[in-house]
Amino acid sequence: MTPLRAGILSAVISLVLDQASKLWLLNVLDLDRRGGLRLMPFFDLMPAWNKGISYGWLQTEGAAGQIALMAVKAVAVVLLAIWMTRAQTRLATVALGLIIGGAIGNAIDRLAYGAVFDFALLHIEIAGYTYNWYVFNLADVAIVAGVVALLYDSFLGVPAAKAP
Fold first, then answer.
1. Distances, alpha carbon 143 to alpha carbons 32, 40, 96, 130, 137, in Å
2. Among residues 18, 109, 118, 153, which one is catalytic?
3. What one-character DSSP code corresponds to residue 2?
4. 70-107 burial, b if ≥16 CB within 10 A, otherwise e?
5. Integer Cα distance of 59 and 10 in angstroms
6. Cβ distance 10 to 150 under 8 Å?
7. How many Cβ atoms are within 10 Å of 137's Cβ, its own excluded?
8. Longest distance between any two alpha carbons in the chain, whole Å
9. What mean pLDDT comes out for the span 41-46?
10. HEC profile of 33-78
11. For residues 146 and 95, what is the distance between their CA atoms, to the nearest angstrom?
12. Which of 11, 7, 6 has the alpha carbon at shortest distance from 139?
């Protein structure tokens, strides 16, 4: 399999897993109505609707704000796709595919619901205080994994050949 195909496959797989998990949690488990579900002492399924971008920044209620966020996301996906076609390593190509798939997954939510559906909540209790991480989804996991893989590839990957 060529690196570009691997990148496209990683984008498709991350997109499908993200959307399938969200559809199942919303329509089968009915998580939004249930209000949450504790799975482990450190992990809950907790519905949250994010109208902004990362960590809820740039929250916007209006259509103009949502369109602006979608436009920025569309430009970013196009630029990432161009980068993916030019990437020199399989790891970089797969990493960019993960980022693209995650970005498209969250964009689909924004188009379908007007907000991104987040549901995974990690937390820990220490000395009677509960510390919560941000609520996230599988698209966010794909994006973070892609960024980490890109950083690894950039700093620790195979060095470029020396110029003659």
1. 24, 24, 9, 26, 10
2. 118
3. -
4. eeebeeebeebbebbeebeebbbbbbbbbbbbbbbbbb
5. 29
6. no
7. 24
8. 64
9. 96
10. HHCCEEEECCEEEEEEEECCCHHHCCCCCCHHHHHHHHHHHHHHHH
11. 4
12. 11
Catalytic residue among 30, 44, 109, 140: 140
For residue 119, with 0-12 CB atoms within 10 Å meaning exposed, 13-18 middle and 19 or more buried, which class applies? buried
In angstroms, the CA 160 to CA 48 distance is: 43
- C-alpha Rg value of the chain to the nearest Å: 18
The answer to whether 30 is a known catalytic residue is no
For the beta carbon of residue 15, count every other beta carbon within 10 angstroms.
24
Residue 119 has pLDDT above 80, yes or no: yes
Is pTM beyond 0.70? Reply is yes
Q: What is the pLDDT of residues 92-102, one digit of tens each?
A: 999 999 999 99
Report the number of secondary-structure helices (H) and strands (E) in the chain: 5, 4
Q: What is the mean pLDDT of residues 39-48?
A: 96
Pair 123, 33: CB distance under 8 Å: no
Read off the amino acid at residue 100: I
Q: How confident is the model at residue 157 (pLDDT cuts 50, 70, 90)?
A: confident
153 part of the active site: no
